[in-house]
Amino acid sequence: RKEVEQDPGPFNVPEGATVAFNCTYSNSASQSFFWYRQDCRKEPKLLMSVYSSGNEDGRFTAQLNRASQYISLLIRDSKLSDSATYLCVVNTGKTDKLIFGTGTRLQVFP
Amino acid sequence: EPEVTQTPSHQVTQMGQEVILRCVPISNHLYFYWYRQILGQKVEFLVSFYNNEISEKSEIFDDQFSVERPDGSNFTLKIRSTKLEDSAMYFCASSEGPLAAYNEQFFGPGTRLTVL
Description:
The complex is a heterodimer of chains A (110) and B (116). By secondary structure, chain A is mostly beta strands.
């Protein structure tokens, strides 16, 4: 089983749509969870950390379900500029190694 | 805003040659990392470095790889004898402190390595 698993997409959505991405992780000892954004041929950039209670940052909402080992990202009111690959990332807490999923590609069209 | 920088942006080399990829982490950061991403694949951890020594390395980071902080600003990744399968984007990252203390890892723009 992959350490971090994501649907590769692509998700093609119109501007203004709401889109949700899911991610599962295999190591139940994982402690920290993140969503990164990666534009084509660019470096990953932290979008948001994911906390146990769930957290919101503007149009973005992240949820964590430790029992199901599942993380989600919801994007409301999609913008053209949201087009990118969204990477689910976990860390076990024992080291500083980030473990990346393969990413889910989002394409927002006018 | 401070950022991690990497040089060169693209390196082309012949199989068997040595390459050195250079990174300048953010100036007050103490933890340094290298990751790589083969085209179309996920980002993979290579090595972490703190207090002038390797703190963790992955299975990918074999004897052909080494890291060094030769001075107070640079952090380098050396591949001694490149193979075709080393072709990838190599990202350097740095953080002020450990992840456990809620420190973000900031990534550089990457060096695209092409081995012919």
